[in-house]
## 1
Amino acid sequence: MADSKFKIIAGLGNPGKNYARTRHNIGFLVVEALASKSSLTIDKSRFDSKYVKARIKGNEVFLIKPLTYMNKSGFPIHKFASYYKVGMEDIIIVHDDMDLSFGKIKIVKSRGHGGHNGVRSIINAFGRKDCVRVRVGVGHPGSEKDVTKHVLGSFSPDEIKILGPCIDTASDACLSVLENGVSFAMNLFNIKY
């Protein structure tokens, strides 16, 4: 991570009760877990987001849940980053990823959007792709026509069994990036394939 005064960890998802426990909202679940590890709740509002500021691993960190829909999530994150002068290298984005099997975690940096509309929105809003991303596997339904139903669908009973450990691992990946830097975290978490 670079030298901004603040860091941002943003979980991607969709606002509202209908989407709360869906695969697409796994980013929200991870930032909520990070907040609860610091005994905090994401309950403040600013820049079309819910957020809380936390001191984590010696860093001042904003935990953010953008409240625009997924495909517009770049704009609130960009507003936060601009206002608090946070460099894109100091932003961690947590999002669902259909290219990874359910529960797998992969950390990437400065990569393209891979077809993910939330990540595409962030790259468009910033005009670059220098952030760190914690990709959380939700599996692929097998057919393109089932993609929307899959990501907006609830977790299956089998997925629920590993959801807790998955969220825990993803939040640990974020903490590792904060504490030890992205290369160390990649070596630690990406090796599990």
Note: The helical segments are 26-37, 74-83, 117-126, 147-151, 157-180, 182-189.
## 2
Amino acid sequence: MQTFNSMIDLLLHLDKYLGLIVQTYGHFIYPILFLIIFSETGLVVAPFLPGDSLLFVTGTFAAAGGMDINLTLSILIAAAILGDTINYWIGYYTGQRALHCKNPQFLNKKHLDRTHEFYEKYGGKTIIIARFIPVIRTFAPFVAGVGKMNYRRFIVYNMAGGILWVTLLVLAGYFFGNLSFVKRNLTAFIFLIIVLSIMPGVIEYLRHFQTRSSAAE
């Protein structure tokens, strides 16, 4: 419970925590952000890390002069693409055992199954769509690797999704995050981003639940 509360506090007060990190570590903020985005997209054990909200807040700090926007975009895009690439190859070489294991030690089986269903429905486009859906974002490249998706096809979707995800959210923070209204209500905006980012997953779950209920009837 304490870990959950700490994570909620981190997500809702990224402006304060990121500001503190920038002040404390200076230019080391770049490798720190790289590691966070890389871990969230590249390690199936870390779907809880902040993604969308972190990118938005990073953009606001870049706009305020705390970070170089071009360097920030380059580093975070590289982290997103590299993370998905590593995740794909992990799934490619080890995923079949995890997918068919009833109780995988390091994976949330429900998240894995949900992503597999999502992938079955949307195919390769899942790699792009999933960028904007927490949890699915982390598991999508892993499932693509498990399914032996053609790597050339995967890397195209991976690069397109990584560039689109990072650029849209960082530039949204860069251009809108320092407007007086947004600055006064930044915590509310972060919460709104979190809610919007999980809505596609909630809608998909409700549709799936409705379909199962109809089939049962």
Note: The CA atoms of residues 92 and 147 lie 7 Å apart.
## 3
Amino acid sequence: MKHSDEIMVLETRRLILRQWRHEDKQPFATMNADTRVMQYMPKLLDHIESDALANRCMELINQRGWGFWAVELKLNHAFIGYVGLHIPSTDLPFKPCVEIGWRLAFDYWGQGFAYEAACASLKTGFETLGLTEIVAFTTLTNHRSIALMERLNMTRDALVFDHPRVPAGHPFRQHCLYRLSRQGWQSRQSRQINSPDK
């Protein structure tokens, strides 16, 4: 995997994926206390926990040049959540891996922002970082995230696993796994380029 000494900033038609700033922490804490946003997480995060997560995302981006980027709307510079790539530290049955993940504030759902930012993240992962595969995982009932994984052309793996950070007996402990290879990404890009609608 290629590493960058510089912090990457990704730009899409409507979004900027960038390093975190101090002023992102308040709207991030509001998100992490929203039962709609956190519906498939084991618990809501208080302000201290939310700030710690933001700081960790910031530290990892400082170390690697990439990570779970803060997502900013070009239109009004609002912070709307995070999207990006991450090397999980949790003992997962398919490690080592790089995952793609996202969490957006509820007001920004259903507008294609997660898809737009995820496509930019995948492009960076495969074309800049030289990754051979990117994975995604979520609890079995998180149908919105699963739909996004499938829209990104990710393929569901046969593996169903218990996430070690979710307590035993919790309804969200069982997770599904999705994979996307560099070859799969390239074929998807080729289909889009050659589409008669383009």
Note: Residues 47-64 form the longest helix (18 residues).
